[in-house]
């Protein structure tokens, strides 16, 4: 391949290069140990040295040198992994450039002409090849040429990156290069005249893990169906492990092609997958997982900052993340303090006057007259302008959805709130209830079923009542200190309160806030009503399955011994089946929806069901039970301990699906009523 002209000294003491062909301006050379056929010890040592060297210091074994007669300076203009590749370039030079070199009176001008032509050829190759998307196109072109020559895979095989490492065969390490592509793990080594090639499809990889072998730590072990391979001596083992896990995950999703395992849009086309894209995708997945955001959210800005935390009476350092629909904050100590603000809740974002005590402050005002202060934002202007732009687009769309006759002149308040405290008035419910038309939802239940139907009390009603009162008091104290609503400060204290139990009177509200189903409800005010109108009178396999399971849903609770509860459950399940026909209806959805209906309004229960099935547990509620298979695979020790007690049984996917359905229904139906809600929020 053509390379950017690089100065070299032809006279070297080591005599590492041997000239095969030459003319007035060009030399074709090979490196000792690669083109020799005599098997001399010098050639073997040079070839071994090239393999042991780090990939960045390694050179191609064949090259073409531009040499000006009488000059002490020469330039390498082409290199290749095979003699055939450089001979093709030699032929092109001989036919297209050499005949025109005679017109130059000054030989240095001729050399400059050749260098400019080679740079033009490189630019054309980069624009039309995989290297155009890489951070270092020239270096990537060299690595790609070596990979293609060594493994001869189809052109559609996309090389993502490569690393210098050792592959262990028994107790013998072989130094070489590990190539990671969209479909394979490839390893190449050439040591003392012996060539080693390994090619493992991602589809055959069963497990990736980091282990310690003897004195070696940070060994990456690749398990396949037949054997295992150990790779070590990486410069950055964390990066290698992350990239390998990402590529294995992409291959798995393509193989399964499941609705719950759909690939991100940026990864749909394998030719777009680069190391930089994988790094961006890893950060995006981390943010979505950290804050529990919808999978469709795109990461926009990431900036270091500090947020004023009233409960701690100080500014807490951390990182602010913005997406299409959210502004989130996580403290430097992960899990210590997090904050999630949907853009639908933001009224304004303003820059305040910067002082030595409060550098680059930003005030974010939300509904209920609450405000958040961010300081130490390095790119404050960029953040404010981008969030304002998204707010304008969001508010414009909301005005269209909500049917306003005319758009307000400005939805951004010019006067920010500086009251950094929280009230406990839940006016959000008033705003959302005003949006929903009573006429649109005239056939639905507008209250939770527990408020209407009271199940029989336990044997110790006083003890239960006292426990509920204690829980309510603890949560009220927490709201006073940390705020109430979806944008409350979330700390370790919340986890402890949830572990103690959420009181019945607050379950619907907190489920909506913690799952962020309230944002989906606010963003689609008439969606549920429209969906019910569309599916009214429709019949399908899903509706037949729903009808069979309606009277099996918490049959001991009075709410589901009554047509009011049964009808609400039917509407929620049918609406979801029509919303997501790829899943439709799965066993145990009826149990989940019935528990949600006990503590949330009908429309809220629908959006909670959507959130659980599509965002929180997308791989469990489908017909391929991918999440179940993964969960079972996490228990190899348990299975191995009981292997002697059980027969070796091989289950098909259909058998596994039916077995899991039976397990879910049997388990949930055998539990007492109060344990259903305990499982739901834990």
UniProtKB/TrEMBL annotation:
Rab-GAP TBC domain location: 501-682
GO molecular function: GTPase activator activity
Protein name: TBC1 domain family member 8-like
Domain of life: Eukaryota
Example of a GO biological process term: system process
Gene name of the record: LOC107575596
PROSITE patterns for this protein: TBC_RABGAP
Lineage, highest ranks first: Eukaryota, Metazoa, Chordata, Craniata, Vertebrata
Keyword Repeat applies: yes
Alphabetical keyword list: GTPase activation, Repeat
